[in-house]
């Protein structure tokens, strides 16, 4: 019985971080909302600078759990600059943890507050978070014919005009790669064959629209594009076949010992501007990703599996980067919950914040 209890507790390791991360959301939204009201008559650039700092505090707490709590080893390959830049971040997409991987790289460049995402439209309905991501600079997009190029271009150009630091994360595949969902992979491969493009094995055929609009809207403001390829160690079954990547909950249960991250920094002058040529260029970049992942998962040489070609660096994040944020936000949340008035404010923030946020994104986002 004791063994059963221990095993049950072990399987619930994600509960603590989930409780802290979700539990501190109203505290964070209240702090941000107060600043939003105070800055209403101030220059947009000043509002954005403080908002970026607040976002950095929250995401640093997130990284405390995803790096220090899990003990995951981060292995970096390629050329990640030490200094922050205005960039578009293009990555393969296989897990909800991919959002965190962008933070993992950004924090190592002191650019964590500048991370902004291009997101699926359905995510705007997330309680509290959906509205805030849009306010922070995130862009919700619909697929295919419903894609609103004009709205995305207008929002990005507004950020350029206010000189907003930009670390724009895009997952060009449009949906997560899952080797167990063969229908999606087969459809992606069939489309590539139809278009005369190389058929890919470990990534989906990338979509060009969001990437092209983002680059075209900010090409004179950007420094580079980061082409990022991510592989989670431990995602092969007993037969050596690739399996589904860990979800956030599974990751927080410490089910991934290492993340391998390959970075190619591409100067903006090397990116074709016209959409038809950029489409070909983007597919070629995904061919390179596919070759890296084939090496990682399928190499005939066991010594070359479970790593990318080239030298890797074991990158450790200092607790000084994350622990203060955890203490600040959890302390403020605990302080709110110990009083009756604080508890009422906390509950009202969850309820009314969610309702107002959903109303706002239904009109604006």
Automatic annotation (TrEMBL):
Name listed for the protein in its UniProt record: 1-acyl-sn-glycerol-3-phosphate acyltransferase epsilon
Domain Phospholipid/glycerol acyltransferase: 87-212
Classification via SUPFAM superfamilies: Glycerol-3-phosphate (1)-acyltransferase
Presence of keyword Aminoacyl-tRNA synthetase: no
Domain of life: Eukaryota
Lineage of origin: Eukaryota, Metazoa, Chordata, Craniata, Vertebrata
Family: Belongs to the 1-acyl-sn-glycerol-3-phosphate acyltransferase family.
InterPro entries registered for this protein in UniProt: Acyltransf_C, Plipid/glycerol_acylTrfase
Record key words, sorted: Acyltransferase, Lipid biosynthesis, Lipid metabolism, Phospholipid biosynthesis, Phospholipid metabolism, Transferase
Any one GO MF annotation of this record: 1-acylglycerol-3-phosphate O-acyltransferase activity
Organism: Erinaceus europaeus (Western European hedgehog)
Keyword Transcription regulation attributed: no
Record GO cellular component, one term: endoplasmic reticulum membrane
